[in-house]
Amino acid sequence: MRVTRSIWGWASLLVALAGCSVGPNYHAPKPQFPAEWLEAKEGTLTNATMALAAWWTNFNDATLDSLVGAAIRSNYDLKAAEARLRAGRALRGAVLSDFLPAIDANGSYTKARRSQNALAFPVRLIDTETYQAGFDASWEIDVFGGKRRALEAVNADLQAIEEDRRMVLVSVVSEVARNYIQLRGTQQRLGLARKNLGTQQETLEITQQRFKAGLAADLEVSQARAVFATTRSQLPQIELMEKEYLHRLSLLLGKAPGELGTDLESGGPIPPTPPEIPAGLPSDLLRRRPDVRRAERQLAAATARIGVATAELFPKFSLTGVAGFQSLRAANLISPGSEFWSFGPSVRWRILEYPRLRAQVRAQNAQQEQALAQFQQTVLTSLEEVENALVAYEKEKERQAALIEAVDANRRAFDLANQVYTSGVAEFLNVLVAARSLYEAEDALAQSRGAVSVNLVALYKALGGGWESEANTP
Known about the structure:
Radius of gyration: 38 Å
Strand order of the largest sheet: 2-3-5-6
Largest sheet: 4 strands, antiparallel
Strand content: 5-15%
Distance between the termini: 66 Å
Number of helices: 9
Shape: elongated
Helix content: 55-70%
Number of strands: 6
Structural class: alpha+beta
């Protein structure tokens, strides 16, 4: 009883000491953000708070919603990120186990013969058989908080891996939306090119008939044929782009090229943008963007590891014990007379390793400073990306408005050129030039409409949308 009380006394003392944690306590940094976005303009882009959980639904396109839902379920990059998260959770369990006592069960059988010539006194048994079974236990008391700091670090690492998964999710969703919009834009361009090619073919045939009738010159036929051939040469490149976007969407949905089906090949309108885009406040990026959140968690982990390294400078206290049965005969192995045990505290202090341990602390401090700099750089990068996305969206909207005017003006010019040529006042070249200008303006307008929607996708991605309410996604 006296030995037991002594052991419990030592244990109580060590547990009482285990109330402090060496190393710095972590406090999340508070970076300075501007009060509002520089490029947000009233009427289109505002600083009002926006809902980003399922931002792709703002395009009001059922096909896009379906593609995003399929990608979230089937994308292999996202599955790999989820596997990394499960691995991180398993590693956290290994760190948690360090807080528990280590208990090992053991058993052995030994047969031995002693040298008679090496014994100072006669013994009863020269040949012996020894049976042993028991347990070894050790428990390191976390007096200076090294294990607690290690748990803080692994928790922060796990949260950083979670933010990595969210980054993949945001990237996958935005890539699906971007490629889908570019596919629709390319299909619209392809339709315009084919329509224009048909019109030019009719023009070429009419010009050839007029030439045969002596009403047109050979030059007009050559000019019509050149315009027709130029437009036809553009079709393969646009068709190639259409196939590439289809194949990319198949990959994002975890399918091989050709497995996506023919539904998307029939074409469709470019998803329109909403009339107003509330971009929120710059300070919202701290809680919305996964890369900013990940950098903050990496900083927390680096700070905790300073404590892990500092704890190695101090002594380590442990409680160890051995208990079991030992006998020369198996028949009475499990009996009171075969019992043996020992318990007691122990201390280990790596005094002679101080120079190396101090160097490790300095290294961890430097890594913490590196993580802080990376966090600050990530914050600035996020601000830059949003401002660039805002100005790109706004300027493309202005370009689109100018292109709409250009299409209207070119269409009127084409009609007038046709009227003048039909009346025999102007040359046929004016008709061809007007037709070509009209096609180029319509093609540029189709590209601009797609670019506006793509730039809006880039804005949603820069704002960090697409992960907050994952349970509500398709």
